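sorry for the late reply, my laptop died twice this morning and i had to redo everyting from scratch. anyway the thing you sent over, i finally got around to it. pasting the sequence first so we're on the same page, its 87 residues, then the predicted structure underneath. double check i copied it right bc i was rushing
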Amino acid sequence: MIRAKFRLNSYTTEMSPSWPDGYDKPSVEVEKRTLNFTPVYGKDSEENKAFWGATPTGSLQLGVVNQKAWAFFELGKEYYLDFTRAA
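ok and here's the structure:
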């Protein structure tokens, strides 16, 4: 497993098609929030210095249509992202 640490810097909101009943059914328009993350950098903690040394650049963008999931993410907060190889 590889662990990365990202900060949520911004998000945008737009309407997007979704298929809540499966792709064989008609789509519906839902609100989608696109979350924009960048790796942490080492100014504010020893942990962030260590992450910065391992992953100095990059970005992560997630499109989320689940409004309950939006409540979990806060602007300016940091989140771990664990990479595990799929079987």
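The first strand starts at residue 2 and ends at 18.
thats about all i looked at so far, will dig more tmrw
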